[in-house]
Description:
The complex is a heterodimer. Chain A is globular, with a radius of gyration of 23 Å. Chain A is built from twelve helices and 18 strands. Chain A is α/β, with parallel strands linked by helices. Chain A has one domain (about 1-60, about 80-140, about 165-540): 3-Layer(bba) Sandwich (FAD/NAD(P)-binding domain), CATH 3.50.50.60. In chain A, α1 packs parallel to α6, α1 runs parallel beside α12 and α4 (about 120-135) crosses α12 (about 525-545). In chain A, the strands form four sheets. In chain A, strands 5-12-13-14-11-17 form a six-stranded antiparallel beta sheet. Chain A has a five-stranded parallel beta sheet with strand order 6-2-1-10-18. Chain A has a four-stranded mixed beta sheet with strand order 4-3-16-15. By secondary structure, chain B is mainly alpha-helical. Chain B has eight helices and three strands. Chain B has a two-stranded antiparallel ribbon with strand order 2-3. In chain B, a hairpin with a 7-residue loop joins β2 (about 25-30) and β3. The longest helix of chain B is centred in the middle third of the chain and has 22 residues, at about 110-130. Chain B is globular. The chains are: A alpha/beta, B mainly alpha. Chains A and B meet through α2, β4, α9, α10 and β17 of A and β1, β2, β3, α5 and α6 of B. β17 (about 465-480) of chain A pairs antiparallel with β1 of chain B.
Amino acid sequence: xxxxxxxxxxxxxxxxxxxxxxxVVLLEKGAWYKQEDFVHDEILNSRRNFFxxxxxxxxxxWRAGADKPYSRTxxxxxANCVGGGTVHMSGYFYRLKPVDxxxxxxxxxxxxxxxxxxxxxxxxxAPYYDKAEEELGVSGNATPHPxxxxxxxxxPVPPLASHPVAEEIEKACKQLGWxxxxxxxxxxSTSYRGRSPCVYCTLCGSYGCEHGAKSSTAASxxxxxxxxxxxxxxxxxxxxxxxxxxxxxxxxxVYVDQDGxxxxxxxxxxxxxxxxxxxxxxxxxxxxxxxxxxxxxxNALVGKNLxxxxxxxxxxxxxxxxxxxxxxxxxxxxxFVDRGMQDFYLMPDDxxxxxxxxxxxxxxxxxxxxFAAVGIAKKGERGIFGKALKDKLRxxxxxxxxxxxxxxxxxxxxDTYVGVDPNVKDKYGLPxxxxxxxxxxxxxxxxxxxxxxxxxxxxxxxxxxxxxxGTAGETTILQGGTCRFGNDPATSVxxxxxxxxxxxxxxxxxxxxxxxxxxxxxxxxIAANSFRVADRLVQRLKKGA
Amino acid sequence: xxxxxxxxxxxxxxxPDEDELSRRVFVHRxxxxxxxxxLLGSACKDEKPKTPPAPPPPQALASSHKTFTNDEWATxxxxxxxxxxxxxxxxxxxxxxxxxxxxxxxxxxxxxxxKNFVPGVAALERRAQKMFKTSFWKATAAQQDELLTIFxxxxxxxxEARWYEMLVVLTLEGFLGDPSYGGNQGEVGWKLVGFTxxxxxxxxxxxxxxxxxxxxxxxxxxxxxxx
Lengths: 545, 227
């Protein structure tokens, strides 16, 4: 078995196949960082190629509509390292809700969108949500609320300590007739399976955890997979192509090893999990006489129906000097707010112009100082420098910023997709992923509505000001859709077991399988689905099919 | 993490402009929380930006810099001093921002950035000569601000606007980054913004001797260059 990618999708497969006694080679294009490699250095972590490749080495192409020119970007990359995006994630581990599995049935036809129901139900995935939460280590406390998805057990690890503002948010939501609910986190609050708990260092999202308390696959599933003795991890190994035999079955993975030497690893089964963008690119770059348009791409659907997560955000600023006495919680230093609101996940009717919404997550602004200062300095006509910039930086020093972000439905549509550009190659000489994005207008209507509701909550906390960051964004680290799963080979790339309709020994287990984006961060769902797929694959292999 | 206005995703300008620098330089958002902006470089590695002839270097300003000529060093120092001037708190020069930029642009990862940024310093000087009949570093603070504002307010995707953006981002990196990169000396930048999360003697602190650029190279590449 060869697995390509060691993040939320690849690692569960490696673990389960290893446990079942199958020999696995796990190819990871990035480096294998150890806990001691994670240091609190913003430049190293966030501003160079520690996690993300540089755009002159390995660009993505990006254009806002097919009539626009492409520009080079590092957008839509996720961390290139063992553990993938789970290493630097914030780890907001929400489950999808039953409606996410049958959105087309629920909403009917939405003009301009390409909705599809999933070929599985929430109930079929639920046991694997339990399993993923246990294997990775998720902290939380599932208390009943009107929007809680069905679950049979509580989280395996108790919740993290919350900042006292969480209570203020709960009160404000209650006053508005809404519900602030605790956000489960892939961060350990207590020791768990030999791993250390969080020390609340505050430099969390965008950093790897030096304590191993963040439940990245590198800290949880990968060590367990390696401990089976059946899994061999090959870091800094970039898959170039999946080769096929005369019958069109996958026979090997061609990759560039850590010394820059091309290798070919034979495989009985190939599992792809390189992110929705990069997995589509790998399939499209794997051309053969059987698959002249790319592997498993008979119906030209590989790369289509790309979805991200709809993003919106506002920030509330509180002056500590002016308000510290009146608002005693303002000076508390606990990093995590961990409250979310899902009252607008699914609207009962069309009154506000949309039905499917998403989640609002509340948090303190990220403490990275360069990140903050670049945002303050801005550019163009709104840009400031000199004394004006220093005054604003001092104002930032004397304030605290509470914010929310939206994880909203992103409607798939015919104008949002990823292909490859044969004319632009990366440092390996491979055609790069070329992304075309055109947002469905309902996404913006929905995001604006959610942002306005979030601002109502923030306003009740009596901040000095509330600034809207935007209502028309997308979170590109959350990506899916490019190899839809479904029962009909004419309208999907994968079957319900995430096996390619056209290639019987090829599986894709990152977010690519998801026909709809869901209204939460999807990392937990990717891991849960991968455990589900692994179960099916192991059963199939044991039957010898 | 996000883009709040996909319609303004940076594109490559096609209108020729005498004073345009490297037109493919742009600044883009990093794709995850806390990442903010990463500076991106040219679309094609072989692009050779036009380097104008350097005016004679001012004598008194020699330093151990490697990326910039003495003249460019003087221009750069004056520019970062206007971005973050000293007032009741230290500014860019006290923090060592020019040293940071000089060292950072020597690292292999930033080679493309160096090719894009350095000619812009000369372009700023050229424009100062044209407008004020004197070197940028000799011009008055008001004149320097006037010229930087012209660059700042230039239409998006022009060389001037992009160079201004690079200048500000590199200045803020040097002011607020880990002191081991050569800037933020005495942690004056962190003090200005109240950042206290490094240096608490916690496990994640960079431990001396620490060199972020070197460490990045080692970790990413196992010591191999050009990986």
